[in-house]
Amino acid sequence: MEDKIRKASDLLLKSRFTTAFTGAGISVESGIPPFRGNGGIWARYDPKSLEYAWFIDHPVESWSIIKTIFYDYFGNARPNKAHLVLAEMEKRALLGRIITQNIDNLHQEAGSKEVFEFHGNSKRIVCLGCHRYYIVGSVSLDHVPPTCRECGGLLKPDFVFFGEGIPQSALSASYEAASLSDVFIIIGTTGEVMPANQIPFMAKSAGCSIIEINTEPSNYTGSITDIFIQGKAGEIMEKLGVELFSTPLDNDEDRIN
Ligand code: APR
Description:
The protein has 8 helices and 9 strands. The protein is of the alpha/beta class. It folds into 2 domains: about 1-30 and about 80-120 and about 165-245, 3-Layer(aba) Sandwich (Rossmann fold); about 45-75 and about 125-160, 2-Layer Sandwich (SIR2/SIRT2 'Small Domain'). Helix 1 (about 1-15) packs across helix 8 (about 235-245) and helix 6 (about 170-180) runs parallel beside helix 7 (about 200-205). It starts with a helix and ends in a 12-residue tail after the last helix. It binds adenosine-5-diphosphoribose.
């Protein structure tokens, strides 16, 4: 593994623009279970509860499940080493942006600034009537479904339900990253969910080198991944951080991260 971490570090130190593409696996060491695989959320809850049409027709049932999964259970998760190393990489101009599929806000809480949320963010709640936004914590979830203080409309978590469109800003930032980046570092994703899962393939087609960190092989591993480092994101990113941050930069004048 050490050899792969050194190779990954060399790639990242030489890269003019690096993008991190993250999935649920990066937050598992923060106590948030993945959606698929052992102990996955979809093994315990029906994904139907996150289908937009079902939410509109069954707001009480859907909100009850959403509250249990995303607010009661994960609400207090904290960033782990993987999130923190990515934030430090950004500070040192070793990372240009993060495209995340996650809705847990942990990249922002770790200090990352250039974060594009492909599936939105569970820390925001939006009114479907007047489009007013609320921060979680400012809305009581003791009685569900919560309603808007302004217009009485139904409130919905501001993350993308199945059947909803992807936020345009996240799409544009992802397409730009795929064309601009020298290196993609893919952390903790099966690569199963469209259209997010296409971004790394687009990056590869544009000539990007792919580093992947995952406990298991994914849809990328046997196809586009150049360096696959098998293991836990927090542990591997900590080692990668030591390698990266102890090596003096020699080409920062042409770095655009
Ligand atoms: N470190 C690194 N990778 C891990 C770890 C860990 N500690 N634990 C699990 N993984 C890997 C798993 O091997 C798997 O490849 O993380 C991945 C988790 O896969 P999913 O649960 O499918 O998560 P993700 O790929 O992000 O799902 C994409 O599906 O349900 C939708 O909107 C949801 O954003 C989500 C999307």
